[in-house]
Design a protein that fits this description.
alpha+beta; 2 domains; two-stranded antiparallel sheet; about 15% strand
Length: about 260
């Protein structure tokens, strides 16, 4: 079930050598040890529901959480439970609720108080209170529902594997694009501009140093929860590592300062 996903995880990890993808510094593309069927059954008994098939498969065959989008897949014992044993009613039920403000109706997105939620388990933390949930019970079990800290709910028809697929395909595409441009005569600034124009990303320099496997010095960038953000001192380091890589690979290159950048 997860074979293709695992192959793509290995591919992204081989590109992102310094774990610069958001959340990768935490999970490092690894999984926790697999759950035993007995341990999983204990967790399901506590939740009062059998976990969706794809999630069960991950916990039993791949690992008890770890590598994944955003902050990774939560261990089974840490999933947030929104009254999982009670069927999720579907977004249409919320839309017909007389308490719902018509101005909040917008396709598959609606404002719903968290206290009204049922049938959901939060399996991936996006940060800032935003969660990717799975419908745990009801006719749409296994589908993704995203909820935000400000009570917005988005219902979809995609599954957990689809979430992983989109995350991996998106990141691999960006990394492969940057890797290809590294072999050109473009400056680091020109590469960053090209990535921003095509993908709307502003982390090109981090992607570059991860591809070429240059470790950021703690004195310059900090570490853990104590990160340093100071472009004036950090940009020259990125440029220096870029030029070292060009010379080592005997690739054509132009220095940003020679171009007046």
């Amino acid at each position: 079930m997860w074979e293709k996903i695992l192959t793509k995880i290995d591919e992204l990890h081989s590109l992102d050598k310094q774990n610069q993808v958001f959340g990768a510094a935490l999970h490092k593309y690894k999984c926790n040890p697999r759950l035993s069927p007995v341990d999983l059954q204990i967790i399901e008994n506590r939740l009062g529901v059998t976990l969706p098939t794809q999630l069960r498969s991950f916990y039993l065959e791949i690992g008890n959480g770890g590598v994944g989008p955003h902050y990774g897949l939560s261990p089974a014992e840490n999933v947030t439970n929104y009254r999982a044993a009670i069927d999720y009613p579907g977004i249409d039920a919320f839309k017909t609720d007389v308490k719902t403000d018509p101005e909040n109706l917008n396709g598959n997105c609606i404002e719903v108080d968290h206290d009204e939620l049922t049938g959901l388990i939060a399996v991936i933390q996006e940060g800032c209170g935003h969660e990717i949930c799975l419908i745990a019970s009801g006719p749409k079990a296994g589908n993704i529902v995203t909820i935000s800290c400000d009570d917005l709910l988005y219902e979809s028809e995609i599954t957990l594997i689809d979430v992983y697929q989109h995350w991996l395909d998106s990141e691999i595409e960006v990394f492969q694009f940057v890797k290809e441009l590294l072999g050109s005569e473009m400056t680091l600034t020109e590469i960053a501009d090209a990535v921003r124009e095509r993908f709307g990303r502003h982390d090109t320099r981090d992607i570059v140093v991860s591809i070429i496997d240059s470790k950021k010095p703690k004195a310059l960038f900090g570490s853990g929860n104590h990160r340093i953000y100071h472009g004036a001192t950090q940009l020259p380091w990125y440029e220096s590592e870029f030029q070292k890589y060009k010379r080592a690979q005997k690739l054509p290159g132009k220095s940003w300062w020679k171009l007046g950048n």
